[in-house]
Structures are given as C-alpha cells and as structure tokens.
Amino acid sequence: MSEAVFNPRDLAQWSGGQWTREPAQPITGFAIDSRAVAPGELFIALPGESRDGHTFLDAARARGAAGAMVRRGTTLDDFPLLEVADPKAALTELARAHRARLRGQLIAITGSSGKTSVKEMVADMLSISGPTARTHGNWNNDLGLPLSLLTMKPSDHFGVFEVGMNHPGELAPLCDILQPHVSVVTNVGPVHIEFFESEEAIAREKAAVIRVLSPDGVAVLPADDPWFRVLLSYAKCNVKTVSLVANAEYRIEAGVPPRFAISENATGESAAFDAPLPGRHVLLNAGLAIAVARHYGLAWEALAERLRTFHPPGMRWKETNIGGVLFINDAHNANPMSMRAALEAFSETPVAGRRWLALGSMRELGAISESEHIALGRAISGGPWAGLVAVGAAGAWIRQGAQAGGFLRLYGAENTADAARVLKDLIRPGDAVLLKASRGDRLETILENL
Question: Is-contact 396 367, C-beta < 8 A?
Fold first, then answer.
C-alpha cells in the first residue's frame, strides 16, 4: 500500500532487531493482515486476543511478502525474519524513525466526530499543491497511525493523518510519533464517555494534538464548540479559529443550500462555495479544511472546485436507490452529536415522497447511554418523519423518548433483518430512508436484506 522503500538494514537498526537472513530487495510497505500483504511488503506478526500473527507466516510468504517482523526465537526456513523483542512496539519505532526522515508538512486531525471527513477534505485540498499522503480509511489508533505514517514518502509535500482515541492517555503517544506542524480539532462531545469522567476530560485528552505543537505550529479550532476555551488554553502556538456564528479568523456564512461563503479575517477576502453534502456540520468541516489549505497558500478558486467534487469515505452519506427509494447509508458510526447532525442534514435533503428513519445504538456512552437514547427520541419527535424503525435494545429507548415527545409512528426491530422486513411494508417509490447507528450494529445490512 506504499511506494516508499525501506532498506532492510535500516529497519533492523530502527527496531532494535536482527535478520535471520536479509531480504535481497528493499521493503516496499508493511501489513499486519496476512490476507492483505502485497509482494515486497514486510508482514508484521502481531499477537492478538484470538489469533496470533505468527501462525500466518506461511500465508504471508505465499502472498509474496519480502519477510516478516517476529518475536525473537521464531523460525521459518527460507523466509527472512526480522527478530525483535515486541513486534507491536517495534512497529512504533519504525514509524518514529521514518518520521524523522520526512521533509513534508504533517497535519494531525482529531475530534469526537467528523475526523475522517475533515482528513479527506484537507488531503484532497493540499494535493492541489503537491503529493500528499493520508491516513488509510480511519486507521487512527496505535496500529493504524504507524502503518499510515509509513506510507508517506520523503518526497511527499504533505501528510494528513487522523489520530483517535477511546481511553484516557491514548492520544499523546500518537502525537509524539507524528510531531505535526498543524493540528485540527473538529469538535468535542460525549463520544467514548464511558471511559472518561466528563466531556471536559475528553476535551483535555483531545488537546494532546495542540500541546505537541511547537511555538511556530498552527492549531485550527472550532470557535463555536462548547469546549473551545479549554482547547485554546493549551495553545502555545498560532491559532486559527473557524465559526458559523461568531467572529473568527474564518467566518462561515450559510446561504441557500448548497451555497455558503467563507470570509478570511487576515486578508479581508471572501469566497463562495458549494457544500458537497447537506447539513451545517458539513459547512464547519469544510471551513476547518479550508483554513488549513489557506495556511499553505492555496487559491480560493481551486479550493472551491476541489470541495465541490468531494466524495465522502465509505458509509458516510452514501446514497443508494433501491426500487425508487433513496437510502442514505450513514452507518459508519453514531454518537449524540453525529446523530443530530445526520437528522438535520436528512431534513434538508430534497425528497419527493416521505422521510423514514432507521436508527440503532450509540455505543460507549456508559452511564448516560439510556438518557442519551431517550433524548435522541425526543429530538426526533419534532421532525418531518413518516416514521421511525428503531433497531435493537437501544432502539427501545429511542422509541420511548419519541413516544414521550408525542411521536407515534414507531416500529421496533430486534435486528437488521427484522428492520428490513418492516421497512419493506412501509416504503414506496419516492421515499427516502436514513440509516444511522454505531458501527457494531452493522445497520447497512438492512440494504442487503432488502
């Protein structure tokens, strides 16, 4: 998955390991899944809770791997093995050493929601100026970030990388590896709050991307966010603010959808844009990306064209027509913030017929899970919906809230197969259906069942 090349001797030095025999050719990339290994790549054998990567060395070799990084003492005839004390820790060290030889500008993106979309927008825009590496999908954890960083070539002008967390203390080590020049926080909300004391604690964890910046670095922050002041308190660098409602370095003015405008305080200039998707949250995401691109001197006209043609990553507002019914698959994930943003965007989406909701759980909310699902149901009760199909145990809480708010067109479903059967009897050509839930619900399988 990378065009960067790595000298096997460098890899041994960086990882503190030793080759059983050195590969004859440079390493062209890295993989932790034996099924995804490409010829010339190094397979990294990671121990897992249910499967150990060391049991897949033969499979990696069969796919053309140049070798494998393994625990010391592992043997496999006629296959180059880089023996290390701990393959996972060694992967981190490979990424850290590779980072030291990169000459391009690195941008870190974090936030409670919208990280992947903003990362893709920023990377698309910066690629106008020069070769740009980016996080593969949403590989933003202690494995995904090193693997993504290792795909960046020393000749790349930019690298745009997503950093995520779901427990305290996870973000700072990733930022220490990345050492970004620019950091973006999309927002702060009760995502993964099951593992945190409060939303403020989440904000302080997100601030790791700001703390890591040098004095000449740049933090791009959403001035409208309730936790903006907490984030700002950690900035010992340049700050660029983006806002839909307040004075900011980049002020967004919503027009008749999809039109909006952005004013740049430093130059007094402004420009008009077409949003690629509905919803005010899309305007803020675009504003954050444009602020980064303008920092690097990109022209307004080029940014407008790139944004107009932006396509979100998989299962983010993906539109599919089945039998004349529009299905909007936004089931990549869900939390209280993204749920409400999706509902707002769906209410603005032109639909010839009726609007239906198929919603599932918002996970990792801990003690506030029941109350947040009930609150979501209450929020639904005032919307322009033909009906709600609520899936799973959390769906019962959503129905409870909707019913308390006076919304009575409610349908329960134990699973996605049940939901598909219910919807099949309700929808007709011209209607639209929004699918939204946490990733574990696999709500997109409603489409498969239909």
Answer: no
Q: What's the distance, Cα to Cα, between the start and end of the chain in Å? A: 34
Angle at 309 between CA 307 and CA 310, to 5 degrees: 65
- Residue 344: both structure tokens together: 């707002």
Q: Which residues contact 407 (CB under 8 A, 6 or more apart)?
A: 377, 380, 381, 382, 385, 388
**Alpha carbon separation from 297 to 64, 107, 196 (Å, rounded):** 43, 15, 39
What structural domains and CATH numbers belong to the chain? 8-90 (3.40.1390.10), 102-308 (3.40.1190.10), 318-449 (3.90.190.20)
Both structure tokens of 76: 């496999």
Contact in structure between 382 and 405 (CB atoms under 8 Å): yes
Residue type, 218: V
Length of the chain: 450
Helix (H) or strand (E) holding 364: none
CB 432 within 8 A of CB 328: yes
Q: How many Å apart are CA 362 and CA 439, to the nearest integer? A: 9
H helical segments located in 212-324: 228-232, 280-295, 300-308
Measured between alpha carbons, how far is residue 284 from residues 281, 389, 409 in Å?
5, 29, 33
CA angle at residue 138 from 135 to 144, to 5 degrees?
Answer: 65
Amino acid identity, residue 54? Answer: H
DSSP assignment letter at 50? S
Query: What predicted TM-score, i.e. pTM, was given to this entire model?
Result: 0.92
**CA pair distance 51, 178, nearest whole angstrom:** 29
In sequence order, the β-bridge partners of residue 272 are: 261
CB distance 27 to 8 below 8 Å: yes
The pLDDT tens digits of the residues spanning 59-90 come to 999 999 999 999 999 999 999 999 999 999 99
pLDDT digits (tens, 9 = 90+) for 3-40: 589 999 999 999 999 999 999 899 999 999 999 999 99
CA atoms of 98 and 96, how far apart (whole Å): 5
The two beta strands, 325-329 and 318-322, are antiparallel
* Other CB atoms within 10 Å distance of the CB of residue 198: 10
96-120 residue pLDDT tens: 999 999 999 999 999 999 999 999 9
List of long-range contacts for 314-319, beta carbons under 8 Å, 24+ apart: 314/137, 315/444, 316/116, 316/117, 317/277, 317/345
**Quick check: 250 and 266 in contact, CB under 8 A?**
no
Q: Which residue is listed with tokens 């996970």?
A: 363
